[in-house]
Amino acid sequence: MDMGLRGKRALVCAGSKGLGRGCAEALAAEGVDLVLNARGAEALAATADHIRRHYGVRVDEVAGDITTDAGRAPVLAAARGADILVTNAGGPPPGLWSDWSRDDFIRAFDANLLTPVALMQALLPAMMERGWGRVVNITSFSVKAPIPQLGLSNTARAGLTGFVAGTARQVAARGVTINNLLPGIHATDRAISLDGSAAKARGISPEEVRKARAAEIPAGRYGTAEEFGAACAFLCSQHAGFILGQNLVIDGGALNATI
User: Fold this and answer.
1) Residue 246's Cα: distance from chain center in Å?
2) Cβ distance 195 to 210 under 8 Å?
3) pLDDT at 90
4) Is 10 helix (H, G, I), strand (E, B) or coil?
5) Backbone dihedral angles phi then psi of residue 189, each to the nearest 5 degrees
6) What is the rounded average pLDDT for all residues in the chain?
7) CA 215 from chain center: how many Å?
8) Under the phi-then-psi rule, with left for phi > 0, alpha for psi from -120 to 50, and beta for the rest, what region is 144?
9) What does the alpha-carbon distance between residue 119 and residue 133 come to, in Å, rounded to a whole number?
C-alpha cells in the first residue's frame, strides 16, 4: 500500500533507538524526510546515517533533551514546517506510591505530558494552516490498564490522553489528526531495563522474567520496533484521515478488554 507520504517531513522524538527508531524507519521507507532527536549524540548519528544510506531521505539530527526548554528550542527550529510529529520520551522509573515526591511527579509530567503538549502547540498551527498534518504520541497501554509499579507514568500519560481527546476534535476540521499509540511490551531497551529491575527484586535472572512476561502475552512474545513503526506510518498516512483522537493498543493481546 502506498501511504501517500513521499515528500512529507516528520519530527520523530527519541528516534535513535527502540520504538522511536521503528517509527522513523517506517516513515523513511515511505519517502518521508526526517528531523530526528535523541539525547545520545553518538547513537543518534549512527541511526541517522543508517536511515540516509538505506532509504535515501534527508535526515537532520538534533541531539538534546526534548523534555527541557533548552533542548526543545533547536529541535523545533529544525522541524519548523513539519507535516508529521511523533512524540516520544522515556518513561519515569518504577517505584512505590509512598516513595514519590512532588518533584518526582513534576519530572514525569514534564517528560510525558508537558513535552508532547509543547511540541503540539508549536507545530499544530502551521499544519492547520496548510490543511494537513499528523500527530502520533507514543504513550503506553497503562492508560487503559495501569501498571502498579509505574504510577508516575500512569499519571502523566493519562493526562496526555485527556489532552489529546479534546484537542484532536478541535483541529480535525483543518485536516490534522492526533492519535496515540499504546505499546505493550516490546523488545526495546526500556523492556530490558524493566526486566532487570523485576529480576533484581525477585532474585531471579532477567531471562526468567522475560520468559514469564512473554508467556502472559497471547501472542507469546514481545513486540518488535518494526511492527510498531508500521502502525505509526499507517496512522500518519493519507488513508488514516478519518481516524482521530484514538488510543491504539499494540500489545499482542495482553490487555484483555473489549473496549
Assistant:
1) 14
2) yes
3) 83
4) strand
5) -60, -35
6) 95
7) 25
8) alpha
9) 13
